[in-house]
Specification:
The protein has a single domain, classed as Aminopeptidase (3-Layer(aba) Sandwich), CATH 3.40.630.30. The chain is globular. Helix 4 crosses helix 5. By secondary structure, it is an alpha+beta fold. Strand 5, helix 5 (about 110-120) and strand 6 (about 120-125) form a beta-alpha-beta unit. The strands form two sheets. The chain has a four-stranded antiparallel β-sheet, sandwiched between helices. Strands 5-6 form a two-stranded parallel ribbon. The protein has helices at about 10-20, 20-25, 35-45, 85-100, 110-120, and strands spanning about 1-5, 55-60, 60-70, 70-75, 100-105, 120-125. Bound molecules: coenzyme A (COA). Coenzyme A binds near residues 23, 75, 76, 83 and 88.
Length: about 130
């Protein structure tokens, strides 16, 4: 498994993950994101010196994403890969690469809190 920097070619993948129902429910902003807004956001993000946006690949198959914003980490696992320990592994990889971060987690998001804690990040409940 590896984390690789996201590119504009990942726009559709990131869009689908962002608008997936559980990801929306667990996000601060639960509204669906429009395609044009998404592409604008991604282009701006990728133009930064450090975009902090990574696609997790397992045997070359994209299975999740990690976003780093200073000391904060956010993440999603593709629906087809959930419940198999993937988030935990992905977040351990992220800690090795970027250090221990803070995950802002809704109280109802038990899987996220467990994965982040097990991987050595700090959970801040929101
Ligand atoms: C949260 C999320 C990343 C977890 O991914 P995952 O790969 O399924 O997580 P893991 O398989 O590593 O499981 C982590 C822990 O949560 C537990 N778990 C998994 N699914 C669960 C569920 N639906 N309810 C409660 N616990 C659950 C696992 O048993 C594991 O605990 P354990 O280590 O004690 O066995 C994934 O559900 C997701 O993408 N959710 C939508 C986006 C999101 O919530 N992102 C985080 C925002 S803070």
């Amino acid at each position: 498994m590896k984390l690789r920097p996201a590119s504009i070619d990942d726009a559709q993948l990131l869009f689908d993950w962002r608008n997936e129902p559980l990801t929306r429910a667990m996000s601060v902003n639960t509204e669906p994101v429009a395609w044009d807004d998404h592409v604008k956001w991604l282009s701006t993000r990728l133009a930064r010196p450090e975009p902090g946006l990574y696609i997790c690949e397992d045997d070359g198959i994209p299975c999740g994403m990690v976003r780093i914003d200073n000391d904060e980490i956010s993440y999603t696992v593709d629906t087809g890969f959930r419940g198999k320990g993937l988030a935990t592994k992905m977040l351990i990889l992220a800690r090795h690469q970027f250090g221990s971060k803070r995950a802002k987690v809704k109280r109802s998001n038990e899987a996220s809190a467990k994965a982040a804690t097990k991987a050595g990040h700090t959970v801040e409940y929101i």
